[in-house]
Design a protein that fits this description.
The protein is α/β, with parallel strands linked by helices. It is built from seven helices and seven strands. The strands form two sheets. Strands 3-2-6-7 form a four-stranded parallel sheet, with helices on both faces. The protein has a three-stranded antiparallel sheet with strand order 1-4-5, covered by helices on one side. Helix 5 links the parallel strand 6 and strand 7 (133-137). Helix 2 (42-50) crosses helix 6 (148-155). The protein is globular.
Length: 166
């Protein structure tokens, strides 16, 4: 089995909130798009945070809308072996250089972790990043079977992060 690789980060000089997943799943890797699985609630959840129907947009426009709202994306794992898409199957993980990215984002206020695996790895890597708030979120994955309304309520905290003034 060959290693699966994360996508490049989606950030720019205006990024105030960085959302980190674990590692793209098979549907995302096949489509070369973050959160491409049709049952993954990510685009609906983050769309609720920024007040846009992102799921209705073409993928490049989704990324531009996120950047315009000050939201960036990346993953905590750079490469790993994983049959299928479940985080529990991740083996031989090499972590992403989160501290380097966070260090380049001068306006960054918070890092949010999409799911438990991202939070566990990301918090360990970012222990020395005191200038940013770290936020654990319920996973947007369909494998995490919490009702959408519960996930959306938890993700709503991100709206406040984006509304904070520098």
């Amino acid at each position: 089995m060959s290693a699966k690789r994360a996508f490049d980060p989606v950030t720019d000089a205006n990024t105030r909130l960085l959302i980190l997943g674990s590692l793209p799943g098979d549907a995302s890797l096949k489509a070369a798009q973050y959160y491409a699985h049709p049952q993954n609630a990510f685009w609906r959840l983050v769309g609720g945070v920024i007040g846009r129907d992102l799921a209705a947009l073409p993928y490049p426009d989704r990324l531009e809308a996120l950047k315009a709202a000050g939201v960036g994306l990346w993953d905590v794992i750079a490469t790993a072996h994983r049959p299928g898409s479940l985080d529990g199957a991740i083996r031989n993980a090499e972590v992403a250089d989160l501290n380097a990215l966070v260090g380049r984002l001068d306006g960054l206020r918070a890092v949010a972790f999409n799911g438990g695996t991202a939070a566990r790895i990301g918090r360990r890597l970012l222990v020395a990043a005191p200038r940013v708030e770290l936020i654990d979120l319920p996973s947007s994955s369909p494998a995490y079977t919490r009702p959408f309304a519960d996930k959306a309520a938890a993700w709503a905290v991100l709206t406040g992060v984006l509304q904070q003034r520098p």
